[in-house]
Amino acid sequence: MIRQLFILFITVQAVFGAAARDLPMSLDEAIALARVRSVDAAEALDELRTAYWEWRSYRADQLPELSFEGTLPSYAKQYTAYMDEQGNYSFVANNHLQASGRLSLTQNVRLTGGTISLNTSLDFLRQFGPGTANRFMSIPVALTINQPIFGTNHMRWSSRIEPVRFSEAKAAFLSATEDVSRMAVQYYFSLLLSSENLNTRVRDKNFMIFNQAKDNIEYWAAFQGRLIYLYSLVLLIPEDKLPV
Questions:
Q1: How does pLDDT run across 75-130, given as a tens digit for each residue?
Q2: What does the alpha-carbon distance between residue 42 and residue 38 come to, in Å, rounded to a whole number?
């Protein structure tokens, strides 16, 4: 009888014990996973990236800019009207090849909102026909200053606004990360509490089934004993006394 009760208890534990499992990850792992995969964390990270690249764009505007402008060699052959000293017009062939290039170094001036640049350029022209020759025109160094008189100094305002905006974005990201961590902790312990409640209910149910099975086995054992007792009494009665 004891062996039957033990086998029954093991069977019930195998059937209903699947729900009583440990959590697959620790609290630190749950927080780390929430900071990486949650929607709120992804949204906060995108906002921080946007603010970061706006900050980088502002910082890039503070640096000197080196640019090159040029035209590829172009060939042209055309006839243009020409007036001589007597006032007579004639058509003259213009057959030439030209190219040009310009190198500029520009720096924004944050104090005044203007720009200052150093330029150098080189032009090339080759006239075809009688007396073909190559001609060059070069400007070694040219200083150019562009200063708006009536206008807003955007560089100065950006120098005040952009650092504050980037600092606010970093603070907002940290706050959103802490909110995600707090929610992850709440959900983790809610899941842990639900798991413990489920384990308790499953354990209570297992014991209830075990007790019911125990009562049934004891009942049938007693009933079997009664049957054996009655059968033994029947065997003790003489055959001629048995009811027909």
A1: 888 888 878 777 788 877 778 889 999 999 999 888 888 889 999 999 999 888 77
A2: 6
Lookup: tokens for 17: 């014990």
Mean pLDDT of 58-77: 88
Q: What kind and span of H or E run contains 121? A: strand 115-127
**E strand or H helix at 178, and its extent?**
helix 154-236
Neighbouring-strand partners of residue 78: 94
Residue found under tokens 């807003």:
152
pTM: 0.54
* Dihedral sign from CA coordinates of 157, 160, 162, 164: negative
Asked if 143 contacts 137 with a C-beta cutoff of 8 angstroms, the reply is no
Residues 199-220, buried b or exposed e (16+ Cβ, 10 A)?
A: eeebeeebeebbeebeeeeeee
Phi, psi (rounded to 5 degrees) for 69: -125, 135
Q: Do β-strands 65-83 and 115-127 pair in parallel, antiparallel, or remain unpaired?
A: unpaired
3-state secondary structure of 103: strand
In 3D space, the residue among 68, 69, 73, 67 whose CA is nearest the CA of residue 124 turns out to be 73
**Displacement of CA 217 from its chain's centroid (Å):** 62
Segment 123-150 shows an average pLDDT of 86
**Contact residues for 17 (Cβ-Cβ < 8 A; gap 6+):** 202, 206
Q: Phi first, then psi: what are they for 6, rounded to 5°?
A: -65, -45
> Do 100 and 123 contact (CB within 8 A), yes or no?
yes
